[in-house]
Design brief:
Layout (H helix, E strand, L loop, with lengths): L8 E3 H4 L3 E3 L5 E11 L6 E9 L2 E7 L3 E4 L3 E4 L15 E3 L7 E4 L4 E4 L2 E7 L2 E8 L2 H7 L3 H10 L8 E3 L3 E3 L6 H12 L3 H7 L5 H10 L2 H10 L2 H10 L2 H10 L2 H9 L3 H10 L2 H11 L6 H4 L6 E3 L4 H11 L9 E4 L5 E5 L1 H6 L6 H4 L4 E5 L4 H10 L4 E5 L5 E6 L4 H7 L9 E3 L4
Parallel strand pairs: 2-7, 15-16, 18-19
Antiparallel strand pairs: 1-11, 2-3, 3-4, 3-8, 4-5, 6-7, 9-10, 9-14, 11-12, 12-13, 16-17, 18-21, 19-20
Length: about 425
């Protein structure tokens, strides 16, 4: 064998089917797959699976291999000295990635792997990148050369499309703890809004894998950003206990939206598995007809008794604010939980510690009714340039808060609109 034939940069497709030859020159079989150690940023080749009569029969360790060549893999030892071993938990067969969908965590898209690029570095062989372009597919079909020549005849060239392996989140195959850990780490780098959109390009098993890989809170944020049909598919596919855990981490309004799209029997099952407090919030929202402000409002808001002082309010916020979905505005209520005013944070910060909220709040408050249409809420938020609006029940008690993100789709679809005359300003009740 000639040292100049040894490969420096090559592709998995160029190795599959290569003859495996021992130190005595005896052909033992062909290369069926390549094993790598997943624990490293660029996975290191740890062995090759030898195939004989179309079945994988043995994993030959990397330290028994002398060289990888275009048409053959040469071993250091004779057949009788080989010591095959089983695949280890930290290892994966690269063939499992071929033709699978992966997430490009840099380009934020779902792509299909056509080939894998390997490179010799510091005496090791490592996975360098995933080939997701047309050339990768043509290479596997042994058509890359003829097609490239044809394209060049027209003064063009097929572009390479490779993704560095460190940007790849792979799914499927042998879900070892190591592989799951790597997938989780890379998925965490993606913003939930982007990951939620990517969910639409994944199949059912891959969606379940994403939800399983993420912490419950991150899974909840991701699911909240997905399309409704994706949300429903995920919750129907997940184990019920896990689905309920994720719903508990969602804001009540987001959880309600998801449950509304599920069959009634499935929604009831999941609500029954949720913690009592979270389940109660969801059940309250489900009482309101779909398309109303009550159905999209959040019940996680700050309501302050009008008798509190500024100093008491600041201490109250230190304890309660982390649990609220929004604290853009602080709403002030009387003893019957009726809305009597709103308190801007600027006013709170600049007031004397001993002043009571009833003396510094703004008493004219624009509000919504639980039965107002979502389009009405969108129009009001747009007209008054607000981030959130309070929602009152039939008894004028503060029932929840509608935020801009709750009705953003309506704002984008309908545009700015004239606010219906039924908008009211809440007169201060003493």
């Amino acid at each position: 064998m000639d040292a100049k034939d040894a490969l420096q940069v090559f592709y998995l497709s160029q190795l599959i089917g290569a003859a495996i030859v021992d130190a005595d020159g005896l052909r033992l079989g062909v290369l069926g797959d390549v094993a790598v150690d997943l624990r490293e940023t660029l996975p290191r080749v740890t062995g090759v699976w030898m195939r004989s009569d179309r079945s994988l029969v043995a994993l030959i360790p990397r330290d028994a291999i002398a060289e990888f060549h275009l048409h053959a893999v040469w071993l250091k030892v004779a057949r009788r000295y080989l010591q095959p071993r089983p695949l280890q938990p930290e290892e994966m067969l690269l063939g499992e990635v071929l033709d699978s969908q992966v997430v490009d965590t840099d380009g934020l898209k779902v792509v299909r792997v056509n080939d894998l690029q390997l490179m010799r570095t510091d005496g090791d062989l490592r996975v360098l990148a995933a080939d997701v372009g047309t050339t990768g597919l043509l290479r596997r079909l042994n058509l890359e050369g003829p097609v490239q020549r044809l394209v060049r005849a027209f003064g063009r060239r097929l572009p390479d499309r490779v993704i560095p392996w460190r940007m790849v989140a792979a799914f499927g195959g042998r879900m070892t703890p190591v592989k799951l850990s790597i997938s989780r780490e890379r998925l965490r780098e993606i913003h939930p809004a982007d990951l939620g959109q990517l969910m639409g390009d994944l199949d059912r098993d891959e969606r379940v894998e994403v939800m399983t890989a993420l912490e419950h809170e991150a899974a909840a944020d991701t699911l909240a950003e997905a399309e409704p049909e994706v949300q429903a598919d995920v919750l129907k596919s997940l184990p019920s206990e896990l689905a309920a855990d994720i719903l508990e981490e969602m804001s009540p309004d987001d959880a309600t939206d998801v449950l509304t799209d599920l069959p009634a029997e499935k929604a009831s099952e999941l609500i029954g598995l949720m913690e009592a407090e979270e389940a109660k919030d969801v059940q309250e929202l489900l009482k309101h007809p779909e398309g109303t402000a009550g159905s999209v409002m959040t019940t996680e808001f700050i309501a302050l008794p009008e008798t509190l002082t500024v100093e008491e309010t600041i201490q109250f916020l230190r304890e309660k604010a982390p649990e609220a979905e929004q604290i853009y505005y602080l709403y002030v209520v009387d003893a019957q939980q009726r809305l009597v005013g709103v308190l801007p944070l600027r006013t709170l910060i600049t007031s004397r510690p001993s002043q009571r909220l009833s003396d510094i709040m703004v008493s004219g408050v624009v509000y919504l009714s639980v039965n107002d249409a979502v389009e009405t809420a969108a129009g009001a938020l747009t007209k008054y340039d607000l981030l959130a609006m309070p929602v009152l029940d039939e008894s004028l008690r503060l029932a929840g808060v509608v935020t801009v993100d709750d009705v953003m789709d309506v704002v984008l679809q309908k545009g700015r609109r004239r606010v219906p005359p039924r908008f009211r300003r809440r007169a201060r009740q003493r």
